[in-house]
Amino acid sequence: MNSRKVVFLFFTTLLIGSVSGAIVGFILDFEMYIADSFLNLVFGLIWLLGISAAFTLISQMGFFAYLTVHRFGLGLFKSHKLWNAVQLILIAFVIFDLIYFRYIAFAEEGQMIIGYMVMPLLLLAYSLIVAYLKAKDTNQGAFVPALFFMVVVTTIEWVPALTVNDPKWLWLYLTPLLVANTYQVLILHRLANQQSN
Description:
This protein is mostly helical. 86% of the residues lie in helices and 0% in strands. The chain has helices at 3-28, 30-34, 38-77, 80-106, 118-137, 143-164, 167-196.
């Protein structure tokens, strides 16, 4: 891709991620933002856009880091099938860790592990849909890399919120990450194809 397309990808991702995070953050704390004066609402929205933009930038760094890791993995394992198998194993480990280690770290007495399964399984289901769309738009070989990126890289980017374990922060942090990661995965091949046309 040329520099113009990279700049386009950067700014459109930043805009989409920031706005999505601000919307979810506003919905989560709706009463707080409308409680006082109009300025409270304005500054609250500016803060939400800023914090969501920061999370979106993390998503963009993760995306370009994964593109490098993916090429390195292909070179290291010398086979798409072997590299895909490694990625599938890592996906399984990450989903297990998201459930089990959060349960060990944060569960209170009497809490069941099933409550800690909801978000990881929703992330997996959403990632499967995104990977399916990516493979449908490109080729079947794109399914596992897209799934790995959406599950593993998103989880790595999400770690700061996972350690706090506050439901509002979990969703406020995850929304711009998921939206930005989804957009980047699904738009990249379209931008690359436009270049050759």
